[in-house]
């Protein structure tokens, strides 16, 4: 009945430390489905939860991990039975509730999604919250009228999880994407995923700021916020759309109204955490059809629970490339 988990503690001096511990199943939180976790993913938010950043974790000891995939161990809910393969992302699991950095998790059935038949649990965590969010962003761009023949799509934070998966999906869907990245050393990997070109972040930010700049982008998928999103918005073409996903570069947004009132630009917020069930199922089904697992394979790094604290520091300092997944067996 015992299992291994990465348990995060707040010490008396306020410092946050995590280590692998063996826990008894009675320690699991309340919930109607218990899952044997096979793989978890590492996301920017996990970096915050493992270091005490952002005030996301309210109570300690805590088990972080905002997404996981595995097999149902037991279920008191009619929708799931022992042996079903499931994936969970969001719902503040891993933040205010115990999450996926453990061999076992107990959750509410409402938060689970059945794994599409074409996916292994490992595939599901290569995508994880990052892949789901990239898919939701592309769905939103398309719902707002963006099409491949409208022009280039700028993807910011391109070498990270959401950015690199967005590039891969855009390529499969026929879009020409430009990867904005602060790490030129990953240019070849991003081009191999389908990026048409690389725009170095410092070069982009060094161009003089104007209230409206030359119109270049049919759409933006932004993972960075701050100065990058502010500048990119001033370069969106008439009728284009910017999908705001992340804040890896800051939560600020200093802008002006001209892109909106003179070019009809839409700024669309993307949230994956509280997405309703039907939208999640639809996004996972489209990922199943669209995601090129083979092409993305080179951007996947596998780690174990004990390696997570170091990986958390790396993701917060923008040093992780693509997706890091955690093997729980
Ligand atoms: P990653 O850390 O994998 O990627 C973030 C990327 O942003 C980095 O790889 C880097 O890309 C770039 N970056 C990092 N620091 C800075 C900086 N100081 N200035 C400019 N760019 C920077 O994270 P994820 O891909 O998992 O997540 C990206 C963002 O999206 C995060 O803010 C995350 O919290 C958010 N997010 C939001 C979701 C939602 O539901 N709205 C869901 C998932 C994530 P490069 O080196 O190529 O420049």
Which ligands accompany this protein?
Answer: NADPH dihydro-nicotinamide-adenine-dinucleotide phosphate
Helix- and strand-based class? alpha/beta
- The end-to-end span amounts to 15 Å
Strand content: 25-35%
Q: What form results from the Cα inertia axes? A: globular
Organism: Devosia honganensis
InterPro entries: Acrylyl-CoA_reductase_AcuI, ADH-like_C, ADH-like_N, ER, GroES-like_sf, NAD(P)-bd_dom_sf, Zn-ADH-like_protein
Protein name: MDR family oxidoreductase
Domain Enoyl reductase (ER): 19-326
List the helices and strands and how they pair.
Blueprint lengths: L1 E9 L5 E9 L8 E10 L1 H8 L15 E9 L9 E5 L14 E4 L4 E3 L6 H23 L8 E5 L4 H12 L4 E5 L5 H7 L1 E6 H6 L10 E6 L3 H8 L2 E9 L13 H6 L2 E4 L7 H14 L2 H4 L3 E4 L4 H9 L6 E5 L2
Bound molecules: NADPH dihydro-nicotinamide-adenine-dinucleotide phosphate.
Keywords: Oxidoreductase
GO molecular function, one term: oxidoreductase activity
EC number: 1.-.-.-
Describe this protein's structure:
Keywords: Oxidoreductase. GO terms for molecular function: oxidoreductase activity. Pfam families: ADH_N, ADH_zinc_N. By secondary structure, this protein is of the alpha/beta class. It folds into 2 domains: 145 residues, Medium-chain alcohol dehydrogenases, catalytic domain (Quinone Oxidoreductase, Chain A, domain 1); 141 residues, Rossmann fold. The chain has 10 helices and 15 strands. Strands 3, 4, 5, 6, 7, 14 and 15 form a 7-stranded mixed beta sheet that branches. The chain has a 6-stranded parallel beta sheet with strand order 10-9-8-11-12-13, sandwiched between helices. The protein has a two-stranded antiparallel sheet with strand order 1-2. Helix 2 crosses helix 3. The radius of gyration is 20 Å and the shape is globular. It starts with a strand and ends with a strand. The structure holds NADPH dihydro-nicotinamide-adenine-dinucleotide phosphate. The site of NADPH dihydro-nicotinamide-adenine-dinucleotide phosphate has 32 residues, from helix 1, helix 2 and helix 3.
